[in-house]
Amino acid sequence: MTGFIILGVIALLVGGAILAIAIRHRRDQRPRHAAMLIGGMMLTAFGLVITGFALVYNSTAPLDFNTAETAR
Question: Which residues in 42-59 are b (16+ Cβ under 10 Å) and which e?
């Protein structure tokens, strides 16, 4: 699972960099910067979600549904 954490952090950093570049050039009103803004937000959100799920998966114990009692 460490690979997913690394992947998420890299996606978070690259998405943040693209987002910062797009915000810095937003006054140009070019379609390229609008696409960079959307793509940067999507990549940043992907990095946050992947990193969050990987951290939670690593820190919780697995559930064993086979030993649970039946529901009444």
Answer: ebbeebeebbeebeeeee
pLDDT > 90 fraction of the chain, expressed in percent and rounded: 61
What is the per-residue pLDDT for 46?
96
Q: CB-hemisphere CA count at 13 Å for 44?
A: 13
Residue 1 has pLDDT above 70, yes or no: no
CA 21 – CA 10 distance, rounded (Å) = 17
Closest by alpha carbon to 16, among 30, 2, 36? Answer: 36
Report whether 44 contacts 12 (CB < 8 A).
yes
Alpha carbons 30 and 25: distance in angstroms, whole number: 9
Q: What's the gap between Cα 68 and its chain centre?
A: 34
